[in-house]
Amino acid sequence: MSPFPDFKNLKSNRDSYPSSDPETLVQSSKLDKIVVTGGKPLNGIIPISGAKNAALKHMCAALLSDEPIYFENAPNMLRDIQSQCDLLTYLGCQIRREKDLMAIDAGPVKSQTAPYDIVRKMRGSILVLGPLLARFGQAKVSLPGGCAIGTRPVDLHLNALEEMGAEIKLENGYINAKAPQGGLLGAKILFPKVSVGATENLLMAATLANGTTVLANAAKEPEIVDLGECLIKMGSKITGLGTETITIEGVKSLKGATHSILPDRIEAGTYIIAAGMTGGTLKLENARIEHLSAAMGLLSQAGIEVEQSGFDIIVHREIDRIQGIDIMTEPYPGFPTDLQAQFMAMLCLCQGAGMVTETIFENRFMHVPELCRMGADIIVQGNSAIVRGVESLKGAEVMATDLRASVALVLAGLVAEGETTINRIYHLERGYEDIVGKLSACGAAIKKV
Ligand code: UD1
Question: What's the Cα-to-Cα distance from 379 to each of 78, 306, 400, 402, 445, rounded to whole Å?
Fold first, then answer.
């Protein structure tokens, strides 16, 4: 008794999924741990999943239409995707998932309230605000939670929606938003700061506004381009994707569509670093070097060779020891903040030293004390950290504090002497599909306990 036509016209990349039930792989409790015994090179093939940071937004875009939207290459086995499904289901969407396929029918949506209990789990849930306001003229969304990597306000989202005529009040921890009678109004919006989420929220809101909206100083991430392409398939009129000025001509309604979600560049980057740190050769299936261009030069300087081969990436370390390099995070196409912790883990064993400067988030060095427990030599000064390479890391009991910090500890564990136990691994399941399965298939001694 499915509300949708079946998935038979859709293409799955993931016949090898260990389970066809998306919920079974994301059920760790706060007590679950990962134990890694270091010292094994990684060799083999890792399939890269669809991008979490795209899928979360594409799912919100489904709210803009009363017809079903179909997604291929959806990273279904992630806790954040599960949270977004919970939120959309609460609003009234019907959702069907199988392997890496997902269908969302927002036709039956009745509620425009995103409650605290679901929104607090993940910042990506703020992305329902623009679509709800655009289609229904009103929305009540709890102020979001997410990784504890800084204060992460939503002022850019709210100010820009006000410029489109929305009336916004903050009451009891909720954002209460109302569009003018007849809907949001096209506007020229100049973001004072580049924001991925604000660009996406406004891009979606503007698709159903009256008139033309121009987003200036917009973010250029590949996930935003992919979202725009999905919206265009739904009938939106958008130009300038991937540049700092995006223009959206509002339309009356959007229709159903099928869209394949782009591969996760941060997951790919993480496994590239894993190969570089451990030695061995990895083939990353369905991954794009072009989305990691800022990291590529640095990886090459560090001694890691990465090449595109069709739709795959092949990676191996060219020298005995990683060379020290300096990195600085910046908005795309600059070096991604979501790979900063993993690069720092890699630098711990480098020849010489490297400096890591974080310019996007003010509190994104929480992995530093944990890496130091494993023997790393890192000194933080303001928003920079100096990492002096040591001869070896030693296995230890460590604590995962946020998504990317957690994976940095897994990477450190892969090269540390002896056993590393990583606590609070539910953070990892927010963003890495089956990381234990993918790494152990390539020779890592890693298990969940
Ligand atoms: C997204 C990604 C996250 C990534 C980040 C930067 C998702 C689900 N998350 O987060 O993984 O690390 O981009 O690439 O896609 N800011 C404000 N006011 C706002 C919004 C943002 O001051 O209204 C600040 C933030 O605190 C931060 C900076 O702007 O310092 C960039 O944040 P933003 O690009 O909005 O990140 P997210 O969309 O939250």
Answer: 33, 30, 20, 20, 30
Residues in the chain: 449
CA dist., res. 297 & res. 304, Å (int)? 10
Q: What is the pLDDT of residues 356-401, one digit of tens each?
A: 999 999 889 999 999 999 999 999 999 999 999 999 999 999 998 8
pLDDT of the residue at 146: 47
Q: Is 226 in the pocket of ligand 1 (CB under 6 A)?
A: no
Residue where a domain stops, chosen among 230, 260, 290: 260
Closest ligand 1 atom to 404 CA: 11
Task: Output the pLDDT for position 22.
Answer: 56
Pairwise CA distance, residues 51 & 53, whole Å:
5
How much is the pLDDT for 30? 63
5-15 confidence digits (pLDDT tens): 678 778 777 65
**pLDDT per position as a tens digit, 219-259:** 999 999 999 999 999 999 999 999 999 999 999 999 999 99
Q: Are residues 211 and 90 in the same domain?
A: yes
Provide the domain count of the chain.
Answer: 2
Q: Please confirm, yes or no, whether 147 is among the known catalytic residues.
A: yes
User: How far is ligand 1, taken at its centre, from the CA of residue 353, in Å?
Assistant: 29
Indicate whether residue 123 lines ligand 1 (CB < 6 A): yes
What is the whole-number distance in angstroms between the Cα of residue 386 and the centre of ligand 1? Answer: 25
- Same domain, yes or no, for 241 and 293? no
Q: Is residue 156 lining ligand 1, measured as CB closer than 6 Å?
A: yes
The answer to whether the CB of 192 is under 6 A from ligand 1 is: no
| CB environment 312-330: b (16+ within 10 A), e (fewer) | bbebbbeeeebebbebebe
Kindly provide the b/e burial profile for residues 370-393, where b requires at least 16 CB atoms within 10 angstroms of the residue's own CB: bbbbbbbebeeeebebbbebeeeb
Cβ atoms of 125 and 88 closer than 8 Å: no
Contacts of 56 (CB under 8 A, 6+ apart): 80, 81, 84, 122, 124, 127
Longest dimension (CA), the chain: 66
Q: CB atoms < 10 A from the CB of 188, how many? A: 11
Q: Which domain covers residue 330, as residue numbers? A: 24-48+263-448
Q: Do both 278 and 242 map to the same domain?
A: no
CA of 16 to the centre of ligand 1 (A): 33
Task: Give the position, in ligand 1's atom list, of the atom nearest the Cα of 158.
Answer: 23
Cα 128 to averaged position of ligand 1 atoms, centre (Å): 16
56 Cβ closer than 6 Å to some ligand 1 atom: yes
CA 212-217-330 angle, to 5 degrees, is 150
447 lines ligand 1 (CB under 6 A): no
The tens digit of pLDDT for each residue in 330-340 reads 999 999 999 99
